[in-house]
Specification:
22% of the residues lie in helices and 39% in strands. With 346 residues, it is α+β, with helices and mostly antiparallel strands.
């Protein structure tokens, strides 16, 4: 009985010791106080107009440009020009094989030379009174026909530049057999460059001749220049239902014919309005909303009516006042009545 009493006493002391240790450990556990104030940016809306940007793409060409195409299916014998070379009107750009039967170059040349000699001989005979004026007129007609035929054949086998300009593209190589209609050489006047875009019916009313545009290289948007719309089609393309707008660049520096460009057409909104960053926008009951900060740093949400927006800014037509402090960051983490730690931007 004595031993049993000792065992029970020992167990009681051990239990009290363990309880005391547990109590001590619990009293030393510190629960950190939760900070409910979210740090956010707030700013007042500014009054102004946003510039609407209509974005399109196009490719550059010379202000005057011509693409020369093959008029005969033959083999290219020589290409006496290279890309970037300056040429004059009448310079030979491509030569085809003259000896082929399909061209009949020699036959046309012989007929022209014969007609020319006949006319010269008859002109001398008329001067001597040996033939009539009518006979000379007939040989003149024959000469004109022979010359036109020879010029046509010569233009088929000897492609000449129709303008003064720069060779901006050569689409064939020596020895290539090309078919009639194939592109051969492009000659451009690159002292000025142009492009064109296809306006949608929605954008058409916003654009007019003289509208300013911004042009940048598609491969390097940092390379930029400005330009203006010089002409707008009055009727839509039947296939695309769009309206072609022609654009002339103000500068050709760092740009050249054949490059792809991005074209931004600038169109200002007509009504001044309060402007906020897009990051301020939220939704309340399915409608656009923003959080406004009270003097005690608590926030509440209000529905707003928005107008035109860009990727960064949005116009607010109603729902806020110019002096309101609007939360522009962290809005997804807020609810009405929350207190915030604001960083005021304006």
């Amino acid at each position: 009985m004595k031993n049993l009493t000792l065992i029970l006493l020992t167990a009681l002391i051990s239990g009290l010791t363990l309880w005391g240790c547990g109590k001590k450990g619990q009293s030393e556990t510190v629960t950190p106080q939760k900070n409910t104030e979210l740090r956010v940016d707030v700013e007042k809306p500014v009054t102004g107009e946003l510039t609407e940007v209509l974005s399109y793409s196009g490719s550059l060409s010379g202000e005057e440009e011509t693409v020369l195409r093959a008029k005969v299916s033959e083999t290219v014998v020589s290409i006496p020009v290279t890309i970037g070379q300056q040429v004059k009107k009448g310079d030979v750009l491509i030569r085809f094989d003259l000896a082929t039967a399909s061209v009949q170059f020699e036959q046309a040349r012989s007929s022209f030379e014969l007609a020319q000699k006949t006319y010269e001989r008859n002109a001398n005979l008329l001067a001597a009174g040996a033939i009539s004026q009518q006979a000379l007129d007939q040989t003149k007609t024959q000469l004109d026909v022979a010359k036109a035929n020879f010029d046509n054949v010569k233009n088929m086998v000897q492609v000449e530049s129709p303008i003064d300009g720069t060779v901006t593209a050569v689409s064939v190589n020596e020895g290539d057999f090309v078919t009639a209609g194939a592109s051969l050489v492009t000659v451009s006047k690159i002292s000025s460059l142009k492009t064109s875009v296809s306006l949608t019916s929605t954008d058409l009313p916003k654009v007019k001749t003289g509208t300013e545009v911004q042009v940048s290289l598609a491969d390097n948007p940092e390379v930029k220049t400005s330009g203006r719309i010089t002409e707008i089609a009055r009727s839509a393309d039947p296939a695309t239902r769009t309206f072609e707008a022609k654009i002339r660049l103000n500068s050709t520096q760092n740009f050249s014919s054949g490059l792809y460009v991005n074209v931004n057409i600038l169109h200002k909104t007509t009504e001044p309005a309060l402007i906020l960053p897009v990051s301020a926008l939220g939704a309340k009951l399915g409608k656009p909303s923003v959080f406004i900060m009270k003097p005690d740093s608590s926030v509440y949400s209000v529905n707003i009516k928005t107008g035109y927006r860009t990727t960064e800014k949005v116009t607010v037509l109603s729902g806020i006042k110019p002096d309101d402090l609007v939360v522009t960051t962290g809005t997804l983490l807020l609810k009405d009545g929350d207190k915030v730690s604001p960083a005021v931007k304006n």
